[in-house]
Amino acid sequence: xxxxxxxxxxxxxxxxxxxxxxxxxxxxxxxxxxxxxxxxxxxxxxxxxxxxxxxxxxxxxxxxxxxxxxxxxxxxxxxxxxxxxxxxxxxxxxxxxxxxxxxxxxxxxxxxxxxxxxxxxxxxxxxxxxxxxxxxxxxxxxxxxxxxxxxxxxxxxxxxxxxxxxxxxxxxxxxxxxxxxxxxxxxxxxxxxxxxxxxxxxxxxxxxxxxxxxxxxxxxxxxxxxxxxxxxxxxxxxxxxxxxxxxxxxxxxxxxxxxxxxxxxxxxxxxxxxxxxxxxxxxxxxxxxxxxxxxxxxxxxxxxxxxxxxxxxxxxxxxxxx
Length: 322
Fold this sequence. Notes:
This protein is an alpha+beta fold. It has helices at residues 7-12, 26-37, 88-104, 128-140, 142-149, 170-176, 182-192, 198-202, 216-221, 241-260, 270-274, 277-287, 296-303, and strands at 15-21, 40-45, 50-54, 60-64, 79-82, 117-122, 154-155, 158-159, 214-215, 229-235. The protein has one domain. The longest helix is centred in the last third of the chain and has 20 residues, at 241-260. Residues 153-158 have low confidence and may be disordered.
């Protein structure tokens, strides 16, 4: 197995993104989408009052109500963009243009509105080994991810990290050890989060186990279906298109690492523990293939909140971060 994730996997693995916002009605958002990417705004309805832009490829860019959003103008301005399945190589520019257009049309977001961003990545190609790798990757780099993303920042209803994107802890890592089938992992996941009957728990859309930084309830409950995905719930809200691109690249890179590495150990990042946060992030991203122009600006976004020295592991004079 390669230790460097394949750039082809990053470019061509299917992903989807959910971006929560307010300040704009779902109908208006669908019409902005139609004007930006081409297609037709259509009312779908249902319990989430969906509007959609059906693009020229027949894909639905949907805008749904979300009861957790604190709106600026009533339920009509509860607006969550749900993209169709996309790939980085083909669709990133389109997605970024849509985000910019929604912002220009009056959409707003932020922790004060209880918003967030979720990225889904295709479950295709995953095995019990790669799922365990994904769990271990998040466990090992949890503090680094949280600090770089600022997800402990307080919103109106409290800390996002303790409500909507809780960490994966040592107990779950231990529960996954030796679980070499999806069925065994599924039972371990639900049992660890307090459910005796995993078959029943999988049927609950809003099962409480989903509110973790890596949501495997989504994966286990959609196994065998065309839209089987793993969901990463880590991200604070933004309508900055470049930041959203960075978020998606991180998930695609972590997914590629989980798929291509033989065994990712569940060991807390020692450089982060020593305090050189910038160097810890730089070296971790480099191991996932973050070199070259494609990753230049996303790299800056993940370094910005961190402390330490990105160039020197122990500081320029070798006297720090031991």
